[in-house]
Amino acid sequence: MAVPGERILGSYRLVERIGKGGMGEVYRARHLKLPRDAAVKILSPELVDEADFLARFDREAAAIASLDHPNILPVWDYGEAEGIPYLVMPLMRRSLKDQLANGPLPPREVAAYLRQMADALDYAHAQGIVHRDIKPANMLLNERGHLYLSDFGIAKGLSGGQGLTRAGMSVGTPEYMAPEQARGQAEPRSDLYALGVVLYQMLTGRVPYGGTSVVEILIKHVQEPPPLLPLRNLVPPLPPAVEGVIGRALAKNPGERYGSGRALADAFDAALAAGGTSRPAPEVPVSGRAGGPAGESTIRGFPPPPGEQAPPQYGQGASHGATVVGPYGGGGNRPPPQYRSPHALGGPGQTPPPGPHGQGAVPGYGPISPHAVPQPVPQPRNRTPLLIGGLVGLLALLLACVGVAALVAVNLGDSNANGTATAGVAASGTVVAVALATGTAGALATAPAPVPTPT
């Protein structure tokens, strides 16, 4: 195979490799006749004979080509050279993931990014496409702060028959995966749930659910309400109404979430406009039930489910443009986040601090931490019922772990050569119904028992 600088694909000469993932590589390329750089995504040669991966690559090209929206990264060309398919797309040097490397963003900048992604998702959903991998690494930025949704490699058509995974299989990135998506039943509001996770991350500099294993993260998505303390510790403080927006966006039941990206963006704009700095009552952790189509969780103080009252239609919010970042404290005893000046821009080569399940390669899967099950305090009398209760609780947790593990094919994360955005296309290692490995990472892909479709 020719090295970059010597290799030509169609009308483009490959200049340098800027990203590498589970499915292929991404190169910066120069048009042979026009003074224009592009991003060229190439399927790995060893996967060319794999029908599933080839179909996924073909479907990504077809999905993007069918979408015409200012916030969806377009495809410029699609072809085959030396028996290997390739995609040509606009070159983007930064992503929202890079932007968040320095911590949370000012609320008005959050509103601008949220509006752009909401518009892109509403359009894709109207065209019958569910993205299934909404996350900052797949949100690319140009020099003016215009945001593009990218990487439709695991997108799924709503009309049925277009999925590459077996019934009940699941694909995506655990930190952003809705409860029903973990059960292999992604729908448009699964994308909106992931957008709610990104909203939380933009405001706080962290995802709401982390853990030492993929299973632990997914169980938190299914059972736990979003942690509100990181929102309440921000300096300057957020209006209290923002907590209600987050709670509804991350509702366990899809029917209790916002019905569209626009409704979510409008609600967030309204919460910011409402102002106020008074603190609500302390957060009351309420664990939801893992059973049912999408799990259930009662979160005190959040708005009623959609349908009881139509979402208000507010203005378009902040203008799109500036790309502002600021330092933050990551929790524990660190100081709360504080924002930088709107003129302090982050450099293109920055990457987020490492974490147990960040955007990079996922480490080995550890067991669920036992602290999730409170142990009863022994009493001098009637110790047997307490012991049985503790064993029953532990058994229930183990069964939940097994249930989730049987439903997930996990995203192996993004990797690139220089820490920058993967030039408009995320060269991710998302697993599609098969077990792969990247470094020490692995994946679970076991067909589960049938699960009722959420209504």
Automatic annotation (TrEMBL):
State the SUPFAM superfamilies in the record: Protein kinase-like (PK-like) (SSF56112)
Residues that coordinate or bind ATP: 41
User: Where in this protein does the record put region Disordered?
Assistant: 275-378
Supply the InterPro entries for this chain.
Kinase-like_dom_sf (IPR011009), Prot_kinase_dom (IPR000719), Protein_kinase_ATP_BS (IPR017441), Ser/Thr_kinase_AS (IPR008271)
What does the UniProt keyword field contain?
ATP-binding, Kinase, Membrane, Nucleotide-binding, Serine/threonine-protein kinase, Transferase, Transmembrane, Transmembrane helix
EC numbers, comma separated: 2.7.11.1
State the reactions this protein catalyses.
Answer: L-threonyl-[protein] + ATP = O-phospho-L-threonyl-[protein] + ADP + H(+); L-seryl-[protein] + ATP = O-phospho-L-seryl-[protein] + ADP + H(+)
**What are the TM regions of this chain, as residue ranges?**
386-410, 422-445
Show the CDD domains listed in the entry: STKc_PknB_like
* Domain Protein kinase: from-to ranges: 12-269
Specify whether Kinase is a keyword of the entry: yes
> What PROSITE patterns has UniProt attached to this entry?
PROTEIN_KINASE_ATP, PROTEIN_KINASE_DOM, PROTEIN_KINASE_ST
Q: Which GO terms describe its molecular function?
A: ATP binding; protein serine/threonine kinase activity
What's one Pfam family the UniProt record gives for this protein? Pkinase
Q: What is this protein called?
A: non-specific serine/threonine protein kinase
Q: Which organism is it from?
A: uncultured Thermomicrobiales bacterium
Biological classification of the source: Bacteria, Pseudomonadati, Thermomicrobiota, Thermomicrobia, Thermomicrobiales
